[in-house]
């Protein structure tokens, strides 16, 4: 956060290394991403390959993983990088999360030595892009219902089905695909050049336009026995990856909120209404105060959860508390900031409407707010209300 927005001195909780990582991510976001985002969002196209290589060169891909060229940094450093990248655009953070926390993490955590050696060095360098296919057209919140299947044919696996809303799908070199087998849900490492695999891009998105989102179509995709992730069994495999990506979002969403708030404070100082700067009115100050209080509380929560993750004690329902609260508050901040800029708030000249629209996706992906409420409800009551 800029010094003035850091009302409760969250910075004092951060190490020198974490502050350095944050500074590097902020520089990249300011110099490389921010100037191009209005155009990328408007045209709904991004130079994904170039960006992946640049992010890889800076160590931002799989930065919380160890070995294979990964930076091996702590969770708070990773979260702060997500925050700074999302302050530019949630779609940019999605590129980083899906690569590092979903596709790479799945291979890093559950893969064979051969899968790890084949993919992770190239993925951490950004030379190979990954995607993560869990959601299906009819099964989003409830992945247990998935229909995509993998059946044995001799030593091979044959995959059939489709996945929907898959970030990076059309630009990916490798897809981690979750499928139903006779032995429950298993994960597969699918080179996207395999015959029968296609990834048409989803068009007409009004949110997360600076991100590639795709359908994955699998028609008799034949893979060798070695394509299965050996260490992931059942739904806990993909759900374990989601914990990682959700953690990045706890920090990331606050980046979008901070960018909205900084823009709004600057705007309110310059905009004259009824002969005075907008920032000199009590109603405006009440809005700014309430929003900055939520931003600071969100940061404290994020850093606290990061410290729990560092110790290895972070539980899934605690991740749900962070994702539910910080994304919900971030979108509330973006919408409130929009009211301060009024008509200018809807213009692409300012980042606010872009962030607000993006945060609609962030509210939905990686578990909707309702799913996280139910995870917390289950932890509180011991009763599962999903079904
Ligand atoms: P349930 O019976 O509770 O659990 C099945 C097995 O999974 C284990 N488990 C977990 N393991 C690790 N982490 C978690 N968070 C876990 N939650 C559950 C559980 O212990 C059990 O293990 P075992 O060994 O006994 O089999 O599962 P359920 O079918 O009742 O579902 C629970 C629910 C609804 C919470 C889960 O399905 C869920 O989280 N649904 C939301 C789906 C979701 O978030 N999809 C996201 C797709 S990826 C994405 O959106 C990327 S967006 C791009 C970007 O990040 O930028
Ligand atoms: P549904 O599951 O159909 O839910 C509809 C509504 O019902 C929601 O409000 C939901 O909260 C509510 N609901 C569901 N269950 C319950 C219940 N038990 N009780 C009460 N209410 C309930 N997925 C991937 O696998 N990989 C990706 O890379 C990926 N990237 C994405 C990128 C974008 C831009 C978007 C928008 C989505 C992406 N997703 C990805 C998919 C995302 O994870 C799903 O959209 C999400 O899990 C919700 O699923 P759904 O959209 O099918 O909603």
Topology, pairings included?
Elements (H helix, E strand, L loop, with lengths): L15 H18 L3 H7 L4 H10 L17 H14 L1 H21 L2 H12 L5 E4 L15 E5 L2 E12 L6 E8 L2 E8 L5 E2 L14 E11 L12 H35 L1 E2 L2 E2 L4 H30 L4 H30 L6 H13 L4 H13 L6
Parallel strand pairs: 1-4
Antiparallel strand pairs: 2-3, 3-7, 4-5, 6-7, 8-9
Bound molecules: 3-thiaglutaryl-CoA and flavin-adenine dinucleotide (FAD).
Explain how this protein is built.
- It comes from Kribbella hippodromi.
- Keywords: FAD, Flavoprotein, Oxidoreductase, Transit peptide.
- Residues 15-127 form the Acyl-CoA dehydrogenase/oxidase N-terminal domain.
- The structure is a single chain.
- The chain has 387 residues and is an alpha+beta fold.
- The chain has helices at residues 16-33, 37-43, 48-57, 75-88, 90-110, 113-124, 236-270, 282-311, 316-345, 352-364, 369-381, and strands at 130-133, 149-153, 156-167, 174-181, 184-191, 197-198, 213-223, 272-273, 276-277.
- The strands form 3 sheets. It has a 4-stranded antiparallel beta sheet with strand order 2-3-7-6, with helices on one face. It has a 3-stranded mixed beta sheet with strand order 1-4-5, with helices on one face.
- Helix 7 (236-270) runs antiparallel to helix 10 (352-364) and helix 8 runs antiparallel to helix 9.
- The longest helix has 35 residues, at 236-270.
- The model has no long low-confidence stretch (mean pLDDT 98).
- The structure holds 3-thiaglutaryl-CoA (TGC) and flavin-adenine dinucleotide.
- 3-thiaglutaryl-CoA (TGC) binds at residues 94, 97-98, 132, 134-135, 141-144, 167, 234-236, 239-240, 242-243, 245, 316, 365-367, 371, 375, 386.
- 3-thiaglutaryl-CoA binds at residues 94, 97-98, 132, 134-135, 141-144, 167, 234-236, 239-240, 242-243, 245, 316, 365-367, 371, 375, 386.
């Amino acid at each position: 956060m800029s010094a003035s927005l850091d009302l409760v001195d969250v910075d004092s909780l951060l190490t020198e290394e974490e502050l350095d990582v944050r500074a590097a991510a902020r520089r990249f976001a300011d110099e490389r991403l921010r100037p191009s985002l209005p155009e990328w969002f408007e045209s709904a196209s991004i130079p994904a390959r170039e960006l992946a290589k640049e992010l890889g060169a800076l160590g931002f891909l799989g930065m919380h993983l160890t070995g294979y060229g990964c930076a091996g940094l702590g969770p708070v450093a990773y979260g702060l990088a997500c925050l700074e990248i999302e302050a530019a655009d949630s779609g940019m953070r999605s590129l980083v999360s899906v690569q590092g926390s979903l596709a790479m993490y799945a291979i890093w955590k559950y893969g064979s030595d051969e899968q790890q050696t084949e993919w992770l060095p190239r993925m951490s360098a950004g030379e190979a892009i990954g995607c993560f296919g869990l959601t299906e057209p009819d099964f989003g919140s409830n992945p247990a219902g998935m229909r995509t299947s993998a059946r044995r044919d001799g030593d091979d696996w044959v995959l059939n089905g489709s996945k929907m809303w898959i970030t990076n799908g059309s630009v990916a070199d490798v897809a981690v695909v979750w499928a139903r087998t006779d032995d429950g849900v298993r994960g597969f490492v699918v080179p996207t050049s395999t015959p029968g695999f296609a990834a048409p891009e989803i068009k007409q998105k009004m949110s997360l336009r600076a991100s590639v989102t795709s359908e994955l179509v699998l028609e008799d995709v034949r893979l060798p026995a070695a394509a299965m992730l050996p260490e992931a069994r059942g739904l806990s495999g993909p759900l374990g990856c989601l914990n990682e990506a959700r953690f990045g979002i706890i920090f990331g969403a606050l980046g979008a909120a901070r960018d909205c708030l900084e823009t709004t404070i600057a705007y309110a100082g310059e905009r004259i209404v009824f002969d005075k700067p907008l920032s000199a009115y009590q109603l405006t100050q009440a809005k700014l105060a309430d929003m900055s209080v939520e931003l600071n509380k969100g940061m404290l929560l994020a850093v606290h959860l990061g410290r729990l993750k560092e110790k290895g004690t972070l539980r899934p329902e605690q991740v749900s508390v962070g994702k539910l609260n910080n994304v919900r508050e971030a979108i509330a901040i973006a919408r409130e900031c929009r009211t301060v800029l009024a008509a200018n708030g809807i213009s692409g000249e300012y980042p606010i409407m872009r962030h607000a629209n993006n945060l609609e996706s962030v509210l939905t992906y990686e578990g909707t707010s309702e799913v996280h409420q139910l995870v917390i409800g289950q932890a509180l009551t011991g009763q599962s209300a999903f079904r």
